[in-house]
Amino acid sequence: MPKSEFLDPAALRAPGEIHFQDIPLNQYNRTVDEEKSNFATEDFLRIYRDMRIIREFETMLLEVKTKGAYRGTAYNNPGPAHLSLGQEASAVGQMYLLGVDDYIFGSHRSHGEILAKGLSAIQKLPENDLMSIMEGFFGGAALKTVQGAQKDSKDLAVDFLLYGALAEIFARENGFNKGLGGSMHAFFLPFGIYPNNAIVGGSATIAMGSALYKRVNNKPGIVVSNVGDASLGCGPVWEALNMGAMD
User: Fold this and answer.
1) Which of 36, 84, 146, 223 is a plausible cystine mate for 159, CB 3.0–4.6 Å?
2) Residues linked to residue 48 through DSSP beta bridges, in sequence order
3) Yes or no: is domain 39-70+79-125+183-245 CATH 3.40.50.970?
4) Is the dihedral of CA 43, 131, 211, 217 positive or negative?
């Protein structure tokens, strides 16, 4: 505060009250039937498919980590694999309407988030754009590995997504980040999947900065930060919430 502006301590410290406007609480009251009217049968089938893909993907990782094999194929992965089994619905529900212009920043349990966002992007992207992305990514190395008897480029893109994510978790060269990011730092920018974060609440401030960039530069899309409940014990998370709420 400049010295030229006089503040009267007696007035500032006088007894008074602060009044806030009413804050709506627990206002959601739509029924299941009302919500169902927003979706077609094809939507529900794809929602279920996406959840089953994520569940099987993480079940496979669990089998590899605990038994050293998956469906009779032996494999050893000494690296981390923090799972989110049972949380598939939250990941798919969050990502289902998001496109490539919407960015996500994940937590350290983000396999489901990555797959759900990728599956949503695949559904919305034109087939020519999908092929361009897959052919141009690291010279098409991952694409060549998964090309086979897929019916169309959408099915091919699903295999590309699963293979790229799994290869990254297993620290293989064909992974989305050449195996250098691993389970807790994977990303795939063409689908709007930005790095997940091993630090508790670490993505909150990064996502807030990304959203600010979009707003300042009139870029389309929203930004999502995934953090766990323990992150509310971290100061930077509250800083991000407060800065994001500023006019």
Assistant:
1) 146
2) none
3) yes
4) negative
pLDDT at res. 247? 66
Q: Please list the residues that pair with 104 across neighbouring strands.
A: 193, 224
Task: Please give the model's pTM, rounded to 2 decimal places.
Answer: 0.87
Q: Edge-to-edge strands of the sheet including 193-194?
A: 193-194, 103-105, 223-225
pLDDT, tens only, 31-66: 999 999 999 999 999 999 999 999 999 999 999 999
Burial call 120-149: b when 16+ CB within 10 Å, e when fewer = bbbeebeeeebbebbeebeeeebbeebeee
| Tokens of residue 36, six digits | 């169902």
DSSP secondary-structure letter at 151? S
Interatomic CA distance for residues 59 and 167, integer angstroms: 16
